[in-house]
Design a protein that fits this description.
The chain is of the alpha/beta class and 260 residues long. It has 9 helices and 7 strands. α1 runs parallel beside α4.
């Protein structure tokens, strides 16, 4: 599957799945070893695995009073978490899909959050604007991954934090995974932590609160074929992840100066 078709796919999701109940597209995180999710508000329990993923990705990162950018904000769920469950001062979500941006502006009433349309490879912000940049499950749509990394470095303030998680080595995406890994290793960031979270992501995909179940419940006459294709795709991801044919990695990194 080409990168351009991946981008078109997200536009289709925005058009055919307009329900405000679907604010998360991340695969989720379900770690049997951690305590119950009693930190989640009762009204948000239906999103527990998705909230748990973004919380885990950002764990250990100081957010109080910080300005945060999410690149690839999708349906706005991760920004929702940042607004409702952290003390971040300001949150911006940027996405290439006009449909996603329209959806977020209509579905979310989050005083600290602004949703904008923009390209991850050419971020429309001044240099050294953000304390934290977050990117979950969208970098596989970026044809020039090295440019994305350069842009993240540019917009981060000195010592800023980059939290990054995505699928890696997924065979049905036509990407040069080895080249992308070299670009990540060469980027001017100090790696604070690197973690394979394939197992808890797999658990989330197979749970009753998982993304496939949520999307399947939204089928109607207008979108039934698309929903079936999407659920089949998620099942393929779940099966290939279980077989170890790709993995899901998380990095937390700190900006180094240009001299590095």
């Amino acid at each position: 599957m080409a990168v351009t078709s991946e981008r078109n796919f997200y536009d289709e999701v925005a058009t055919l799945l307009p329900s405000a109940k679907l604010i998360f597209l991340n695969y989720g995180y379900a770690d049997a070893a951690v305590e119950p999710c009693d930190w989640i508000a009762p009204a948000d329990e239906c999103h527990n695995v998705h909230l748990s993923l973004v919380k885990h990705v950002l764990s250990g990162v100081e957010l109080a009073g910080k300005t945060v950018l999410e690149v690839g904000s999708g349906r706005g769920g991760n920004c929702y978490y940042l607004s409702r469950y952290t003390r971040a001062k300001k949150v911006l979500g940027i996405d290439l899909s006009e449909g996603n941006v329209r959806f977020c502006r209509a579905a979310h009433r989050l005083p600290k959050v602004t949703f904008l349309r923009g390209d991850a490879e050419c971020l429309p912000f001044r240099s050294e604007t953000f304390d934290v940049v977050v990117n979950l499950e969208s970098s596989h749509c970026y044809p020039h991954f090295d440019q994305f990394l350069e842009e993240v470095h540019r917009v981060l303030r000195p010592q800023g934090i980059f939290c990054y998680a995505d699928l890696w080595f997924l065979e049905f995406l036509e990407l040069d995974w080895e080249q992308r890994k070299r670009a990540l290793d060469a980027a001017p960031f100090a790696v604070l932590s690197e973690e394979d979270i394939s197992e808890p992501v797999f658990r989330a995909l197979t749970s009753e609160a998982g993304l496939a179940e949520t999307i399947h419940s939204m089928a109607n006459e207008a979108n039934r074929d698309f929903v079936e294709q999407l659920v089949d795709r998620l099942n393929l991801v779940r099966i290939t992840l279980a077989l170890g044919r790709f993995s899901y990695w998380l990095w937390r990194m700190q900006k180094l100066s240009a001299a590095h």
